[in-house]
């Protein structure tokens, strides 16, 4: 398992997918350290330690490279979610960027509405995103939502749902500020630690569940996805709405 993790780390490293390769290097190093502890052959131990040292050096170099890119405002990571792929719940995409210093979040998505539309559950998706923030290691105090008004009779339902989310978040010490724009088109999520995530489909990249009691209805990691692209950036200054 350690060898496979390292093989994958090297492949990602060569492909300049540094953030992903760093995770694989760290995983492989942990596995190899366990192998060293379980090995009684001194020659093999020496070989493993030598390899571990090499991988640790490379991992540190990648850390420095990533940090420099962040400081220069040049960091960019792209994730391609294939049609019907699973394993891409919100925690998978966002959790590694929700460090303890995150206290403020900006969400721009024109379609946080339509609770009962046949193909979308966007207000529920936004609620699920907020739940992740409340549970996470971060200390979120303020969430800013910029979206558009629902059309026709759906506006009343949209406002009622958002107000309920707002009141519920306040019970956890989180303030939800809601603004509306008729011209918003971009979909992006920003954290005040400098991370910005742009998802082609916004928070609505999950397919409709087959039924209320089907696998994937509650656990988004098990829900098939629509094809979309996720771009992750790090900026020196997170703009405000």
Write up what this structure looks like.
- It is elongated and about 75 Å long.
- 26% of the residues are buried.
- Helices cover 42% and strands 17% of the residues.
- Strand 2, helix 5 and strand 3 form a beta-alpha-beta unit.
- It contains six helices and seven strands; from the N terminus they run H-H-H-E-H-E-H-E-H-E-E-E-E.
- The termini are far apart.
- Helix 1 runs antiparallel to helix 2 and helix 2 packs antiparallel against helix 3.
- It has a seven-stranded mixed sheet with strand order 1-7-6-5-2-3-4.
- It has 241 residues and is of the alpha/beta class.
- It folds into two domains: 71 residues, Methane Monooxygenase Hydroxylase, Chain G, domain 1; 159 residues, MITD, C-terminal phospholipase D-like domain (Endonuclease, Chain A), CATH 3.30.870.
- This is MITD1 protein.
Write a brief caption for the model.
This protein has 241 residues and is of the alpha/beta class. 42% of the residues lie in helices and 17% in strands.
Q: CATH-wise, what's the superfamily of the largest domain?
A: MITD, C-terminal phospholipase D-like domain
Order of helices and strands: HHHEHEHEHEEEE
Q: Beta-strand level of the residues, as a percent range?
A: 15-25%
Number of helices: 6
CATH-derived architecture of the largest domain = 2-Layer Sandwich
What is the third-level CATH name, the topology of the largest domain? Endonuclease, Chain A
- Total beta strands: 7
Q: What spatial order of strands do you see in the largest sheet?
A: 1-7-6-5-2-3-4
Q: Outline, from the CA principal axes?
A: elongated
Helix content: 40-55%
Radius of gyration: 21 Å
CATH level 1 class label of the largest domain: Alpha Beta
How many domain regions?
2
- SS-based class: alpha/beta
Rounded to the nearest angstrom, the distance between the terminal CA atoms is 46 Å
* Average residue-wise pLDDT: 88
Parts with pLDDT < 50 across at least 5 consecutive residues: none
Tell me about the largest β-sheet.
7 strands, mixed
């Amino acid at each position: 398992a350690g060898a496979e993790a390292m093989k994958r780390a090297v492949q990602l490293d060569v492909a300049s997918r540094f953030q992903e390769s760093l995770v694989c290097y760290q995983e492989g190093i942990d596995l190899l350290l366990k192998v060293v502890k379980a090995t009684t052959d001194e020659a093999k131990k020496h070989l493993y330690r030598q390899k571990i040292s090499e991988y640790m050096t490379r991992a540190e170099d990648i850390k420095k490279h990533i940090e420099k890119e962040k400081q220069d405002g040049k960091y960019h990571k792209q994730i391609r979610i294939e049609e019907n792929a699973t394993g891409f719940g919100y925690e998978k995409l966002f959790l590694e960027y929700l460090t303890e210093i995150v206290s403020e979040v900006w969400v721009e998505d024109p379609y946080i509405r339509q609770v009962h539309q046949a193909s979308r559950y966007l207000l529920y998706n936004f609620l699920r995103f907020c739940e992740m923030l409340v549970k996470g290691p971060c200390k979120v105090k303020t969430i800013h939502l910029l979206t558009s008004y629902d059309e026709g009779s759906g506006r009343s339902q949209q406002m009622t749902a958002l107000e309920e989310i707002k009141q519920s978040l306040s019970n956890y010490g989180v303030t939800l500020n809601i603004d509306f724009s008729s011209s918003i088109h971009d979909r992006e999520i920003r954290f005040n630690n400098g991370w910005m995530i742009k998802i082609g489909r916004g928070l609505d990249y999950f397919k409709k569940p087959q039924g209320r009691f089907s696998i994937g209805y509650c656990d988004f990691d098990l829900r098939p996805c629509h094809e979309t692209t996720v771009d992750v950036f790090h900026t020196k200054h997170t703009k405000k709405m």
